[in-house]
Amino acid sequence: MIEAFGLTKRYGAKTAVYNLTFQVKPGMVTGFLGPNGSGKSTTMRMILGLDSPTEGIVTVNGLPYRRLDNAPRQVGALLDAKAIHGGRSAYHHLLCLAQLSGIPARRVHEVLGVVGLQDVARKRSQGFSLGMGQRLGIAAALLGDPQVLLFDEPVNGLDPEGILWIRNLMRRLASEGRTVFVSSHLMSEMALTADHLIVIGRGQLMADMSVKDFIAHNSADFALVRTPDTEPGQREKLTAVLTGAGGAVRPEPDGALRVAGLPLPRISDLAHEAGVRLWELSPHSASLEEAYMRLTQGAVDYRSTEDPRSGFPAGAPAGYAVPPQGALPGAPGVPGAPGTWAPPQGAPQPGYAPGPGRPVVPGQANPYAVPPQQPSAPPAAPGDAAAPSPADPTQRDSEDAR
């Protein structure tokens, strides 16, 4: 079990975490949610003794992490998958951790098999992809077979098979009576994985409840109602009837009506009494993402905006002709003729320029290449013989003869 009491962390004038009190209980997956900069990583670092609280205390199984006997055997964590010496192989990285904690070497082979890295165990980790690095970090967390596990963004970089695997792994670990604490920004994954949620915003606790209760407390259910598109008058008639019965009606962009405040049977009865035919009457329950956005919308520090694109005129780049409708670059025909489009002379050739990761295939001509123009010869001075072109074969032969 993880317990925090009045946990506060300040960095100078910046308060990263303020007065956090919560419990992470065994036997369930607890999701740790919050916007960027809300203090999630700082909280997890304090749990693991990497940062000291300014105020308050946090314990693991009743003791601060630094006072645990052989802590890696009791707590496993993945905070940063890149925390590994790139020159070491996956096997030797785990072996070093095992030897430091008195863990048998055979356990290294076991966890490599659990995370699916046994085939690359002897390869240097510096060549690992992001997903392989995540798997290695998870193997390190599982190495001591701990009862408490912390994961920070564990599905980052994993493919769909890996995401399904880590989801099932965390649920299996929790079913064995372990404490599993998972921080993630992927609401869809948390909805499928977590049993309980702890949500913070700007360093303060915002919610501590089950996933089901969290959605129920932070969402507004509604019904989607659709009338025949060919009879717009019926939609206006139904809107007036539902509004008169106390419902909140809002039109949707696709022509449907969003109705809140009335149960589905009541909506159906009102439509029947008014003689309005319904093409759709369906309930809508909010997702975890919708409930989360509703709760944390006032605690977001880094909010994106629309790109104004000021100073960038619309249309084709300067010097390029706009291709006619249906025309393709490089289509057969004379450049500039109707139905064709070609870049101007001397323009870069997109898709064919040599560069890193783009080798030139020997013998393959560039179908979009523009023939280079030969520089014109300077005018001959009076009384001088005309200088032949460097491409003149007779001139080349005479130079070879000399």
From TrEMBL:
Keywords: ATP-binding, Nucleotide-binding, Transport. SUPFAM superfamilies: P-loop containing nucleoside triphosphate hydrolases. Residues 345-359, 369-381 have a biased composition (Pro residues). CDD domains: ABC_BcrA_bacitracin_resist. The keyword NAD does not apply. It holds the Pfam family ABC_tran. This is ATP-binding cassette domain-containing protein.
